[in-house]
Amino acid sequence: MDSLEKSAKTVDEAVELALADLGASRDEVDIVVLKEGRSGFLGIGGGGATVRVSRRHAEETVREAVSVAKEILEKLLSLMGIEAGVEETQSGDSGRAQFNLELKGDDLGVLIGRRGQTLASLQYLLYLMAGHRLKVHVPLTIDVEGYLERRSESLQTLAQRMAERVVTTGQIAVMEPMTPRERRIIHLALKDYKGVVTQSIGEGDYRKVTIVPHK
């Protein structure tokens, strides 16, 4: 068994359950948060967390998988009638290498979509197709002309500004609906911010982050 999904009250608990079943340690796996655990708004309601934990393969195997994923992505773009180049890049160290497929071309906004939802859906589709064909987890991110980095910087700035407002006014701030990746950026940006805590509320595409005063 190289990959499995586990659910629990929190992400950490779900990860620990998966690691026990895989017989692996955290530095031997890649973790994808499919659903964040939440305590609910002001303690009311709430839900569990779901993660996919996959054992890391040798870098040569992953490189081959990324090459196949690139081939699949190029085919998808062709079927969609979109002209775009696909450039493969790598970040991180050899132990935690992250592979990226950067799409380059003109008028590629259609691949990003509102709040990056189209891009997130395209990446998830590619993840499923490549995983089904190769039976190997591919630590892969798709980006369009550096959109993800720009969006990440913008969200971090927005999170800081809204947290300052919450501390000043003492009122809860509710952000717009975001993808799981974007919500995680907000949570991490304010993890150590004094005077506030963050929570995720809502369901599906309408899930959003709230910033709550905290003493």
Description:
With 215 residues, this protein is α+β, with helices and mostly antiparallel strands. It folds into 3 domains: 53 residues, no CATH class; 87 residues, K homology (KH) domain (GMP Synthetase, Chain A, domain 3); 65 residues, R3H-like domain (Ribosomal Protein S8, Chain: A, domain 1, 2-Layer Sandwich). It is 41% helix and 25% strand. A 3-stranded antiparallel β-sheet has the order 1-3-2, covered by helices on one side. Strands 4-5-6 form a 3-stranded mixed β-sheet. The chain has a 3-stranded antiparallel β-sheet with strand order 7-9-8. A hairpin with a 6-residue loop joins strand 8 and strand 9.
Per-chain topology:
Elements (H helix, E strand, L loop, with lengths): L2 E6 L2 H12 L6 E7 L13 E7 L3 H21 L5 E7 L6 E7 L4 H4 L4 H18 L5 E5 L2 H23 L3 E2 L5 H10 L6 E6 L6 E6 L2
Helix pairs in contact: 2-4, 5-6
What CATH architecture label of the largest domain applies? Answer: 2-Layer Sandwich
- Total number of strands: 9
CATH class division of the largest domain: Alpha Beta
Predict the CATH topology of the largest domain: GMP Synthetase, Chain A, domain 3
Gross morphology is globular
Terminal CA distance = 45 Å
CATH 4th-level superfamily of the largest domain:
K homology (KH) domain
Order of secondary-structure elements = EHEEHEEHHEHEHEE
Largest sheet: 3 strands, antiparallel
Strand order of the largest sheet: 1-3-2
Using only CA atoms, what is the Rg? 19 Å
- Structural class assignment: alpha+beta
Domain module tally: 3
Summed over residues and divided by their number, the pLDDT gives a mean of 82
